[in-house]
Amino acid sequence: MPEEQDGTAAPRTLAEALRARGDEGIAALLRARPDLLVPVPTDLTQLATRAGTRASVVRALERLDRFALQTAEALAVAPDPAPYPALLALMAGDVGDAAVARALPGAVAVLREQALVWGGDDRLRLVRTARELLAPSPQHPSPTGLGPTVAEATAGMSPGRVQEILQAVGLPSTHDPVSAVAALTGLFTDRTRMDALLDQAPADALGVLDRLVWGPPYGEVGAVPAPPVRWLRDRGLLLPVSARTVALPREVALHLRAGRAHRVPEPAPPAVEPAREYRPQVVDGTAAGQAYTALATAEELLKKWDQGGPPVLRAGGLSVRDLKRTATALDVPEPVAAFWLELLYGTGLLAPDGEAGERYAPTPAYDAWLELPAARRWARLAGTWLASTRTPGLVGGQDAKGRTLSVLGPDLDRGAAPEVRRRVLELLAALPPGSAAEPDVLLARLRWERPLRGGAAGADLRARLAVWALSEAETLGVTGRGALSGHGRALLDDPDGEAAVALLAPLLPEPVDHVLLQADLTAVAPGPLRRPLADALSVLADVESTGGATVYRFTPGSVRRALDAGRTAAELHAFLAEHSRTPVPQPLAYLIDDVARRHGHLRVGAASSYVRCDDDAVLGEILADKRSASLGLRRLAPTVLASKAAPAALLDGLRSMGFAPAAESAQGDVLVTRADAYRTGPRTAPAPVPDGPPVPDATLLGAAVRAIRAGDLAATVTRKEPETATTARADGALPRTSAAETLATVQAAALTNSAVWIGYVNAEGAASQRVIAPVRVEGGFVTAYDHTADEVRTYALHRITGVAELADE
């Protein structure tokens, strides 16, 4: 049974019910409904008032599980107040339900803890705002499917019509409408007499009742009702609510339902059972392989944007075209590319550069991230994903104003995303290691835990968040084959990721310091390359394919890129010979020598730009080529051509014609370019946008409870009026006392170790009332223990407006 009432008087208000709780009860309320704590209420009356506001009650209802919500819905259609047996009858029905009977005390306890229900078991009261939200009405049908009571449906009916109904059902006439309604209600709630009345009903009339019994309880009738409807209406089994609408009274529906408020009570959550089972080692290995691929994908994306990425849209975010290009470059679908972009943005590795022509680029944090061990880099990404409110699955949809949502743009934060991700992983963690569950089973469990009365849109978003969480966890390597990995479990228990790093590190391949050169101008990396080797090879060659072994291809363009970065042909030969386990193939050596021989033969500078070459025949060949027409070239000297194009455009144009020019500085030196030269300024990762205030920690809860208790003591303590008060107040507020009276009272309190009640105005002019226990009075100040603030404070005597002794208990 729920909690029994002691011998104390029953609470008359929610504030009195809260006042009867212990400190742990108040802390439990604030923990379950953290929005009540911002700002900290001054006393329990203010806490009760805030707990009854519409916004707070809606938030609390949306966080109830299905059975607790069904219990609140049953209380909303029960008499107010309702004894516990009446609530049990509504939930379990006339025949009873053992599972409901076992679960109901827990549901009532949850509602009590969250201050949605108050009062003893003999007088359970649903807070007024919750009753207004859950009670049936034509505009807002009840989830129970019940309609108005007989009293509500007959409120606008003429007294004569009510008396006609009494005669039709065989009840004696009464002298007033109130007793008539009471008599009709008594008939409809009497199981025996109702069975006898319904035995007289035509079969078609019973069919009408069957269509309305589980809701909606309203039906339309024509100007001339059909005989079955007329039979029911004449006997009050259907009551008119408008000229063309009738309603099934709540009492009649409950009789037809055998007393149950809900068609299917759900006292227990749907069980999440394993659908597939694998050896834990297989799951961990699969997840680790995917984690390695995730790191490679993240590095590949950021490396492609080393010289600056796509521009930022004026409204924020990345254009659809640039998202498609990114997906093509990564060889992944667009939703997966959006996931990686959002994850890197949320981790702080990618951000807008903040320049005039704003574009995306890696941040300085990217370089520091690259220096971390692989397992630690993964933990950084996975920890960000678990806590982020960014929701890449929404990309391509529309916001409330019909605007398309773009990746990296605004309006992609959803406060429920972290909670759903964590809950999905927790449900997987509850299964035996290596076990996977069906997505539909997980969704059914989530729907039971948070029915979300916010409507179909809210329920649909939560379901989509869960589906996205499963897919993203697999992509990131948190799960493998649908089962939670060992390092995924560790990440769930320790968001800092230290335990996950320790479990994942042995499963990832060790970085290697060599490649295998092949005669087809490719190099095979048999594993992840160590950082200096990987950086150097990414400049000298292009990545052709990734996976367990990465394949690099050497091209004239890639070799020229290495020469542009300041490497010489001899250095490239030495680099390959040092890091290859196979001999350097002759075609590769010839390729490097050939590109190096032509590299820098042409020099490009700013005139707008110019080309100079010691071989005037080469310049003549360029001028004769029709492809050079767009460059606006003209000969200034036998070895110099001038161009209208910018130096960068001239370089690109000549390279497209098959030449290998080198950029030149104003002093005539070859310009060396670095592939990783461009970074944004220092950027901080975007903070998650939570769905309401966070759950307070134990320290904050303890301080808040003490402050509320002290404030409540100051507001409710019984006070004695000073006999010499200059202004006796009839409303019970503190009288104003003279300076001499104030001094004498606090001095007496200090001597007797008693508490007094004071009014105080601080230096900013803010007035407050406090209960203090004076310790020392000297120099125009009183040092006292302040019960309101739960600390020792010093008060200036001239700022105390009045003082009163506390009444004896």
Quick structural overview:
With 809 residues, the chain is α+β, with helices and mostly antiparallel strands. It is 45% helix and 12% strand. It has six domains: 14-134, no CATH class; 150-257, no CATH class; 276-507, no CATH class; 516-598, no CATH class; 606-687, no CATH class; 733-808, SH3 type barrels.
How would you describe this structure to a colleague?
- With 809 residues, this protein is α+β, with helices and mostly antiparallel strands.
- It has six domains: 14-134, no CATH class; 150-257, no CATH class; 276-507, no CATH class; 516-598, no CATH class; 606-687, no CATH class; 733-808, SH3 type barrels, CATH 2.30.30.100.
- Helix content is 45%, strand content 12%.
- The protein is built from 33 helices and 26 strands.
- The strands form eight sheets. It has a six-stranded antiparallel sheet with strand order 21-26-22-23-24-25. A five-stranded mixed sheet has the order 18-19-17-16-20, with helices on one face.
- A hairpin with a 2-residue loop joins strand 23 (767-778) and strand 24 (781-786).
- Helix 20 packs across helix 25, helix 21 (417-429) packs across helix 23 and helix 27 (556-564) packs across helix 29.
- The longest helix is centred in the middle third of the chain and has 25 residues, at 280-304.
- It is elongated, with a radius of gyration of 39 Å.
- Mean pLDDT is 86; it is low at 3-7 and 723-732.
